[in-house]
Amino acid sequence: MEYFCYVSRDKVDQLFHNYFPGESDERQEIQTVENDVGTNVDAGLSVGGILSLFKGGITYGRKGAIQRERKVKMQYTEKLRKVLLVVAKEKPIPSLANALQSDKLQSLCYHHEGAFSLKEPINSDVKSNKIITICTKVLSHQLLLDCSLRFFSEGNEPDGTFQIKSATSRFFTEQLELQFATIFVLLGRKGKDIIGTPLFLKLEVPDGLAGFMTI
Q1: For helices 9-19 and 70-90, what crossing angle results, to 10°?
Q2: CA proximity to 100, closest of 90, 111, 116
Q3: How far apart are the C-alpha atoms of 17 and 198, rounded to whole Å?
Q4: Residues near 32 by beta carbon (within 8 Å), at least 6 away in sequence
Q5: For residues 51 and 32, is the Cβ–Cβ distance under 8 A?
C-alpha cells in the first residue's frame, strides 16, 4: 500500500491560487497530450510521471482507515494533482540527485526518493503546530525538509496535540528511517545542506504492515 502521509496544505493552496486565480477548489480536469506520458524520470517528472504518481487512486491517508477530515483530504489530493500537472507541463520537475551532479539548482521544485529520519527527535506531548525537519543523504549533500506536524495524515488530535503511536514512535523519537518519495520546494542551500519544504511525502508500506504503520 502506498499513500500520501503528508500534504502541505498551505503550499498547495498557495500554488493553486497562483496558477488558478479566482477559480474554485472543485475538481477540474487538466488536458494532457499523449506524448507527455512515459518520460524518463531521470530527465525529470513530466505530465506522464505525475499521472503515474496518482495512478490507482492514491489517497491522502491510508485507504480503509478511519480518517478525520476525510472530505478535506480528498480535496487536497485533487488540488495537489492539479498543481503538479501544471508545474510539470511548464517544465519537467528535475531529480535532485541529477541537479546536484550538474551543480545546477535553478528550479522551484525537485523530486527525490530516499530513507529519511528526523533531524531532532520529538517528545510524546508535542503540539500539532510544531515544525519538524526530516533529513537524508543525497550524494555528498544532506537534504533537509521542514514539515508541519499538522499536515501529517494521522496523529493530529482535536485538542491541538500530536499523538505518537507505537508503530511510528521510533521514527518520531529515535530517528528510525522511513522511505519517502517527495516533490519539494527548494528554499535554499547552505554549504552541503539543501533546504526545502515538501509538497507531499509518499510512504509505501508492505501489505502485511498496512494496518500498523500509521503516519
Answers
A1: 50
A2: 111
A3: 18
A4: 47, 51, 85, 89
A5: yes
Q: Residues with Cβ < 8 Å from 166, sequence gap 6 or more?
A: none
For residue 109, what are the β-bridge partners? 185
Instruction: Tell me the C-alpha distance between 193 and 190, whole Å.
Output: 5
Interval 120-173: pLDDT, tens: 999 877 999 999 999 999 999 999 999 999 999 988 998 999 988 877 888 998
Annotate 38-105 with DSSP letters as a single string.
T--GGG-B-HHHHHHHTTTT--BS-TTS--TTHHHHHHHHHHHHHHHHHHHHHS-B-BHHHHHHTT--
Residue 93 to residue 86: CA distance in whole angstroms: 11
Name residue, grid cell 495512478: 55
